[in-house]
Amino acid sequence: MTEEVISPERFAILVEQAGLRLTPEQFEELRQAYPLVERMARTVRRPRDRAAEPAHIFVQPKE
Amino acid sequence: MAPTLLTVAEASREIAEGRLSPVALTEAYLERIDALDGELHSYVTVLRDEAVMAARELAAGRSRGVLHGIPIGLKDIYKTRGVRTTAGSRRYLDHIPEEDAESWVKLRDAGAVLLGKQETHEYAIGGPDFTLPFPPARNPWNTAHYPAGSSSGSAVAVAAGLCAAAMGSDTGGSIRGPAAYNGIVGLKPTYGRVSRRGVFPLSYTLDHCGPLTRTVEDCAIMMQALAAYDPHDPASADVPVPDYRAALTKRLDRLRIGVIRHFHERDAVAHFGADSAPSAAYIAAFDDACRVLESLGARLVDLQLSPLIDYVDANRLIMLAEAYALHETDFRERPHLFGHHMFARIALGAFLSAADYVEAVRQRRELCLEFARALADVDIAISANSTGPAPRIDAISTYSTFERASYTGPYNLTGSPALSVPIGFENGLPLAFQIAGKPFDEAGVMRVGYAFEQATEFHRRRPPLAASLPQHQ
Question: Would you tell me which residues 12-41 of chain A have a C-beta closer than 8 angstroms to some C-beta of chain B?
Answer without folding.
Answer: 14-15, 18-21, 26, 29-30, 33-34, 36-37, 39-41
